[in-house]
User: Fold RNA helicase from Exophiala bonariae.
Amino acid sequence: MTDLSVNGLAEPLPDITNGNHLGYRSGRMNEAALKVASEHGWVAPKSYKYDADQATTETPASNGDGLDSGENKDDNATVETGATSRASKFAPGNWAHDAGRYEWKEEYGDVGPRSEKLEEELFNSKFINRAGGNFKNLTTVKVIVESQKRPAPISDFETAGIHPVLVENIKLCEYQMPTPIQAYTIPAVLSGHDIIGVAQTGSGKTAAFLIPCISKLMGKVKKLAARRPNLAGNFDAERERVRAEPLILIVAPTRELCCQIFDEARRLCYRSMLRPCVAYGGGPMREQIAQLNLGCDLLVATPGRLLDFMSRPEVLSLSRVRYTIIDEADELLHDDWETEMTKIMSGGDANTDGDHRYLLFSATFPKRLKKLAAKFLDNDHVHISIGRTGSVHINVKQQIIWTENNHKNQALYDLLISMPPSRTLVFVRSKKSADLVDDYLFNMGLPSTSIHSDRLQIEREDALRSFKTGDAPILVATGVSARGLDVKHVMHVINYDLPSAEHDGFNEFVHRIGRTARIGNEGLATSFYNDRDSGMAPFITKILVETNQSIPEFLEQYKPEGALNFDEEDPDVEDGAVEDEGGDAWGAKGGAAGASDDAWGNGNATAAASEPAWGGETGASAPVEETRGTYTSTPVAAW
Ligand SMILES: Nc1ncnc2c1ncn2[C@@H]1O[C@H](COP(=O)(O)OP(=O)(O)OP(=O)(O)O)[C@@H](O)[C@H]1O
Ligand SMILES: [Mg+2]
Assistant:
């Protein structure tokens, strides 16, 4: 393994002593172990019990958002009764959907005035992730774009044709330069294309889709948006409420991820008329509807809750949607979600005019999904791949440790105690294991909490909040939390159980360890491995080779001879497609082949190209051409 200094791991952890902790404990805390943990610098675990009344009367939200195989993904069940009454006890405003956002008033001109208080909350929280010292590493990967026009990536936000208010918001976010997925996606969306965007974990895909969509609409909201109440003065919620008619719809598979995307949308929509909302299962339906009733131009939603709202025309209409964005698209295009996604993509009163763009994003995108995805997209859609699809970033240092199942608890404890305390995410394979491992750590005096889909939504939100704040810096999680979550200073991901090779384990492995080392930060991923994980062995070994990590002896036998070939894990290659990503153009018959391998973004690329580049407003109305080209480059010339 490449060296990772662990000395600094503890620094980001605040010295918090009054944390809350969820009450799922059995057994008794081992006092001697508590002393040891404390001597090693871990904050003391705290137990927190919701009031007894709640604990007994609430129906558990046994309805996750489906990333764990076998977990019920209907994220609406139990909500109206259980969660609503719970909400009345849970302090209003603590739910993620209630988070503060910029409220537009009719008297504002084109841009609203600043609000110092909101700015502080939106942009200055110490828990917001910031670019790390290895940010440059993000820009050295190979970029492959399949499109009908030659790509012209942007090299900064200021001159990219982004709405000036949004440029200011990007500055407040402290984004100094676009990441590669942003550099390519932003001009492609601004010029009217549908997108498949694939880039490594933690490389800024959320902003890549939010920035151009928000920018395109920012100046036009007055014209395009539905009627909305004037929230200034004596706003009467009963009489003046409206139905939500969003212009931007974002669908993501888990509740926590939706809330996180909503947070980023709140930042980027600041001082604009665009009002973001979030809707997700397990949260109180009535309160979410009350938020929609105030006007909603950008809606982030889990599929189950979205379908529920779609079936209530007085609550939600999709007839104005200009951008539908599917985050973690490979997960949502999976057969498990087919019924929901078919309805969402083509059902209800969705806007079927040609001005409706579709954007699909993920860090993993199996080849077999290309055809399926293409059904939803325009012929001139742009497929952007930053790095090998499904690859792990080199900023993640990895180690694989042989651990028999009956030694895993001890090994986990030893590992945690042997390193400086740090925010650590421990992945297990089942909900039961999550409870047991959390219990074990807690009883051993370590500040852990856990999250999985059998927990009430309040408890899920609380667990994540405790993890983020450092109250409970160890979070034990199932695969529900593998995708998308962006928590500052997650320094260590531990695969207590590796995912199962039979259940999309390769992709899950990539997403799981991608919870650390995000946006140029460093991080460590440790995986416990034994005979039962042999299905994962060839894949993991190739990942280790690809990212230049050392290979443990027990994996030596899986080390491939010659060039790495990941098609074994992703076999469904389309007929006629070329294996090498650099030459894999869909149906391309050499139309733009001459453009391959040129350097982009260097000022004269456009002139040299045989096809016009993106960047103007011409894309949407350009005639559809017969062929697509594949354009590759590394590194991105502009950086
Ligand atoms: N240009 C930028 N400069 C600095 N930080 C950025 C930039 N773009 C995004 N970020 C930050 O990087 C972090 C990771 O971004 P994001 O969650 O969008 O990654 P992602 O590519 O969607 O990862 P995943 O595949 O895990 O979902 C976020 O905290 C985000 O605010
Ligand atoms: Mg993401």
Observations:
- The longest strand covers residues 396-402.
- The pocket of magnesium ion (ligand 2) is lined by residues 205-206, 327, 484 (CB under 6 Å).
- Residues 14-23, 50-89, 574-610, 616-626 have pLDDT under 50 and may be disordered.
